[in-house]
Amino acid sequence: MILEKYEWGDPAAPPLVLIHGVGSRAEEFAEAAQFWGAERRVIAFDLRGHNRSGFAPPWSHATYVEDLVESVRALGIARADWLGFSFGGSLLLKMAVTHPEVIDRSILLEPVIKISPELADRRAQEELTGDVWDSVEDFIRAHSYGAEPNFDDADRIATYFDALPDGRVKRRTSQTAIVSIFSEFAADSPPPETLAGGTTALLYAPAFGLVQPDQLEAYRPYLERVVALPGMHSVFQTAFAETTAAVTAFLNETESTA
To answer: 173 phi and psi, to 5 degrees?
Structure first.
């Protein structure tokens, strides 16, 4: 599937491809992408089952990887820097196995490496009806992940919802796709040595605890850089300056092989 996209920055500059998290959308990167776009061509795709891209199955993680590779190749890009947030980080780990040729440098930002079956099941159950909300404000509260809810972007976030006749709002996502995604979060990720020979950074929020200490230590020998960020999982809300600065530093201080 060719995915719908947003672009920022100089079309002639080196590409940086951003992969959003489950239930999100490409436009979530808008503020950070404008920051990085000063020196790069920044591209973010709406994943299958999300926002403007197609909703058709299959919804396996492997399919999501193939969608991304097909979509960047359709833009004439053979190799790029990649940043994956949450689910996007999980997809980058899998892309390193099946399509390492498209990856120059990769940034795993609060990646889902593996979660317990109990957590995967609970989150999948929550997402069965997670597309309909009483209001956009209720959605923001539920997705603050431990941070103080920030309603400053409520108007922008509202553009990702459709109004229902009863006054509630419906998010433009396929809930069956999201449930499928969560089911695979309980499976093992590719082994850490998959990253050997690559140039990879791991940026994580210790206070949130998504990246477990044993996972961090297993992957650390194969990482070019590890950065602990303040705040919670939603790092673009809770640690925007630190996150954008860490990404910029990694890209500026490591050597591209493209």
So the answer is: -140, 155
β-strand 15-19 against 41-45: which pairing, if any?
Answer: parallel
CB contact set of 165 (below 8 Å; sequence gap of 6+):
none
**What superfamily in CATH does domain 5-113+189-253 come from?**
Alpha/Beta hydrolase fold, catalytic domain (3.40.50.1820)
Q: Prior bond to 192 cis, omega within 30?
A: no
> If you search the block for the tokens 């493209």, which residue do you land on?
258
Helix (H, G, I), strand (E, B) or coil at 258: coil
Residues 6+ apart with CB under 8 A from 202: 108, 111, 211, 216, 219, 220, 223, 225, 226, 227
Task: Say if pTM beats, i.e. exceeds, 0.90.
Answer: yes
Number of residues in the chain:
258
Looking at residue 202, its amino acid is L
Per-position pLDDT tens, the chain of length 258: 999 999 999 999 999 999 999 999 999 999 999 999 999 999 999 999 999 999 999 999 999 999 999 999 999 999 999 999 999 999 999 999 999 999 999 999 999 999 999 999 999 998 887 789 999 999 888 877 666 787 887 887 888 899 999 999 999 999 999 999 999 999 999 999 999 999 999 999 999 999 999 999 999 999 999 999 998 998 998 899 999 999 999 999 998 876
How far is it, in rounded angstroms, from Cα 200 to Cα 206?
A: 19
Q: Coil, strand or helix: which one is 2?
A: coil
Q: Determine contact, residues 181/61, Cβ cutoff 8 Å.
A: yes
Token pair 């070019």 is found at 224
